Amino acid sequence: MIPKTLIIGAALSAIFIAAAAISFIWTPFDHAQLAIPNKLKLPSVTHWFGTDHFGRDIFSMIMVGARTSIAVAVIAVGIGIVLGVPLGLTAASLRGSWLDEVIMRSNDLIFAFPSLVIAILITAVFGPSAVNAIIAIGIFNTPVFARITRGAALSLWSRDFLLAARVAGKGKARISVEHILPNILNLLIVQGTIQFSLGILAEAGLSYVGLGAQPPTPSWGRMLAESQTMISFAPHLAIFPGLAIVLTVLGLNLMGDGLRDLLDPRIRRQVT
Q1: Which helix (H) or strand (E) covers residue 103, if one does?
Q2: Is 129 helix (H, G, I), strand (E, B) or coil?
Q3: CATH architecture of 67-267
Q4: Is 181 within 8 Å of 84 (Cβ atoms)?
Q5: Backbone angles phi, psi at 57, to 5 degrees
Q6: Of 246 and 169, which is predicted with more confidence?
Q7: What is the Cα–Cα distance from 100 to 174, expressed in whole angstroms?
Q8: 115 or 145, greater pLDDT
């Protein structure tokens, strides 16, 4: 039985993914076109979400901003998986060694600096951009996946089927790839979904303080930042990008919970 949270989360996520995909070929208006005579229009049949202080269509900007947020989050989570999973498998296979200590203490060091601080450091050197936001979020995701992978792998190393693999002459690296990784893949999928939602939230936060995607590329976080001085007389400038962030993160979190319930055999047995 498919959990309701998975269905609801997948539906919400699909809406924003579809909006991002459609924005490559169509938007109601050009998201970068300035139309000063139409500035600060309220939502209407013509402009569904109204217009901003430059007369740009907010609905079109949210559609294009969706692909910015999704692209940043996907690549950043991908960086975390590509770097973190091998590190976690290596640390687990060499438990108690100096390399295990180096990997895990390095992870602790990265955890001491939130993604915003890392982004500020990177921006100070290379300047603000979406690429630097991706690097900052990706660096922060790496220890997350490393710790999750190591913890899950350690619980498997004492299992009989791994002892049999070692008796058969397989090395630790081969065992990690052929036996451990497939058995923790479900956990990594769930964690990846959760980190994806956090990546979208982090991208919005970085853009809000000017460290994410730069104009003219739309960003939900920067739309919120630009609306804060006009929220008293044009609240729609903040309401719609704010709802986009909330619903997307909510959908991904619900989908992550639903995947956990679906893929975890212990929870599945309790439900049935």
Answers
A1: helix 98-111
A2: coil
A3: Orthogonal Bundle (1.10)
A4: no
A5: -75, 120
A6: 246
A7: 18
A8: 145
- Please compute the mean of the pLDDT values over residues 160-177 and round it to a whole number: 86
Q: Are 49 and 19 a contacting pair, CB within 8 Å?
A: no
pLDDT at 95 over 60: yes
What is the pTM (predicted TM-score) of this model?
0.88
Question: In this predicted model, what pLDDT tens digit does every residue of 243-254 receive, in sequence order?
Answer: 999 999 999 999
Which single residue is written with the structure tokens 């060091």? 109
What amino acid occupies position 121?
L
pLDDT band of 265, cuts 50, 70, 90: low
Cβ pair 31, 218 in contact under 8 A: yes
Measured in degrees and rounded to the nearest 5, phi and psi for residue 51 equal: -125, 160
Sign of the dihedral defined by the CA atoms of residues 95, 99, 101, 102, in that order: negative
Q: Is omega for the bond preceding 216 within 30 degrees of 0, making it cis?
A: yes
How distant, in Å, are the alpha carbons of 53, 206, 210 from that of 230? 9, 21, 18
**Strand locations in the chain (E):** none
SS3 of 111-166: the string is HCCCHHHHHHHHHHHHCCCHHHHHHHHHHHHHHHHHHHHHHHHHCCCCCHHHHHHH
d(CA 261, CA 87): 27
User: In sequence order, what are the residues at sequence separation of 6 or more whose Cβ sits closer than 8 angstroms to the Cβ of residue 117?
Assistant: none
